[in-house]
Specification:
The chain has a domain of 44 residues. It is built from 2 helices and no strands. It starts with a helix and ends with a helix.
Amino acid sequence: MTLGSWVKKARDSRAASMPADSPLSESERLELIRLRAEARDDKAKIAELNMQIDFAKKVATWFAKGKQ
């Protein structure tokens, strides 16, 4: 048994033994906070990239109209 499969098996058995509504441990709570912040940062980055795409489309349209 490899180390990776052993870790996965241990994690899965621990998750199966804990009820879904059990309180989070301190490390789980910190990880959840970190992941939520990361998701928030990702959403902000996606919104910024979408604005840049929209602006690039407008600039391309403006240049295309000027060349006709």
